[in-house]
Amino acid sequence: MRAAGRWREVLAPVLLGVVALLAWQATVIGLELRPFVVPSPTAIGEQLVDHAAVIAAASWSTARNAFWGLVIGVAVALLAAAVSAAVRVVDEMTAPLVAAAAVVPIVALAPVLYTMFGANAQTARVVVAAIVSFVPVYVNTLRGLRTVTPVHRDLMRVYAATRRQATRVVTLPGALPFFFSGLRVAASVAVISALVAEYFGGPVDGLGKAITSAVSSSNYPLAWAYVVGAVVIGLVFFCATLALERGVLHRGNLRQRP
Amino acid sequence: MSATAPTSRSARSGPVEPVGPPDGSAATAAAAAVEVRGVSRRFASRSGDVVALSDVDLTVRAGEFVSLIGPSGCGKSTLLRLIADLDRPTGGELTVFGRPPHVARQNHDFGIAFQQAGLLPWRSVRANVELPLELHGTGRAARRARAAELLGLVGLADFADHRPDQLSGGMQQRVAIARALAESPSLLLMDEPFGALDEMTREHVQTELLRLRAESGAAVVFVTHSIPEAVYLSDRVVVMSARPGRVREIVPVALGSAGDRTEELREDDQFFDRVRAVREALHGTDPADGTARGVDQR
């Protein structure tokens, strides 16, 4: 019963994907669409196989920038959230800055950052990914640290718990789910911004660069094959954070067990 | 003579006879679980001060079960929060076992349960019961043993490894009571702990609470808005009135000790009699129809 449900959960989207690909293929062939409009899935697949090594290298390069950006952004966000939660003045002082970081499209800063850090270094891309992933993690974690229910606060007071104990027992575990929902958003935007930052200059490796150069040489199926690479990175990042979330929250459960 | 009196009194601390006025000697101050003297609490608000409690006097003796009942806004929860040192009075004086509430709190002299069970959702039921012991440095083995014992007492031994959200509201509340009893406090403070439960579950946990209380011999201050609940559980019912919150009347219940009370008591004439007494105290003597009702019932 349960296994059947699991199968349906996996099988149904896969089936839908296959049907969509078939419909796509049939449309391209039936309407004789030109590759610059949209190439057929088989043409994209061919390019994917033929240029597997190049696509993998470009994906790896973008993924690396996104990863380091994410790591730095999350680390700084956690630190900042901890300080803001502890010292209200800091929070009040930085609130406008954080709001600004949330509304300004950071990728738009990429050209400036390339000039700042050098056009042949990856630094600007990592910085963009870091700033973009900082915001959701900071905002969510801070909210999590602030969200202690009154009954738990009363309980800690009645038990005469020290501030450290209350933090360990109530505040941190309560903030974890908030942190993870921030992290999930951050992981997606880190990949997107690292890739989009490549459109604005910098070194010639990476998926963004590869997509623009494939399009400018009219190799549309190859451009699409690079897009597939981007989709794969995005999925890997998303699944990795999800796995981390499940792992940590689950371990939290187990820690209390025998 | 005067030197021996306190020792002899503290030696027989434990369940005291349920009814009877507190004897006024100075020695009882040390034995009383809760002593409230002329306590007021006003809250500042934009439209002027709100007087939540005005000049309240109350003594809860060791081992005594006292319910606070009254309309919403009568300050019954405020009074409980003052005893628990979750709030400070603006006037008057409170002592818990002869000590100021904050000292009693630091000494872990009382356990507490709220209307919301307030369990930590990321901890197992067992770890929730262990929480106060863990915070106060009890060893791992002793903690586990005590949690197992308490979960047995509240009939949830099989649920030790469950998460709170896997339990019904009544079961969660029983876990919260087990947690409140973890350090065998001599005073239990309960703020409408069964308020969110359905009637069936409620009667069940009430009987359970009577049993737990008979076994522990702890004094209980119990806030409720249910008259039958107050009568069924208490040695005395403190009836409060609102705006400003004050004690209107203290109704002695005298339906036997906690251990002797069973479900049958709910059907007993004496029980109905006390329920009526509390209800009359609660609704006050309205000159128009209050007297008529009073005559009717006598």
Automatic annotation (TrEMBL), chain A:
Domain ABC transmembrane type-1, chain residue ranges per copy: 59-244
Superkingdom per UniProt: Bacteria
Main location as per UniProt: membrane
Keyword set, alphabetical order: Cell membrane, Membrane, Transmembrane, Transmembrane helix, Transport
SUPFAM superfamilies in UniProt: MetI-like (SSF161098)
Localization annotation: Cell membrane
Residue ranges of the TM segments: 66-90, 97-117, 123-145, 166-197, 223-244
Membrane topology reported for the UniProt record: Multi-pass membrane protein
Coiled-coil zones: none
Similarity section: Belongs to the binding-protein-dependent transport system permease family.
Name the record gives this protein: NitT/TauT family transport system permease protein
Organism: Isoptericola halotolerans
Phylogenetic placement of the source organism: Bacteria, Bacillati, Actinomycetota, Actinomycetes, Micrococcales
TrEMBL record, chain B:
GO molecular function annotation: ATP binding
Superkingdom to which the source organism belongs: Bacteria
Domain called ABC transporter: residue spans: 34-267
Annotated Pfam families: ABC_tran
Biased composition (Low complexity): 1-13
Region (Disordered): 1-25
SUPFAM superfamilies: P-loop containing nucleoside triphosphate hydrolases (SSF52540)
Stretches that traverse the bilayer: none
NAD keyword on record: no
InterPro entries from the UniProt entry: AAA+_ATPase, ABC_transporter-like_ATP-bd, ABC_transporter-like_CS, ABC_transporter_ATP-bind, P-loop_NTPase
UniProt keyword annotation of Transmembrane present: no
Alphabetically ordered keywords of this record: ATP-binding, Nucleotide-binding, Transport
Protein name: NitT/TauT family transport system ATP-binding protein
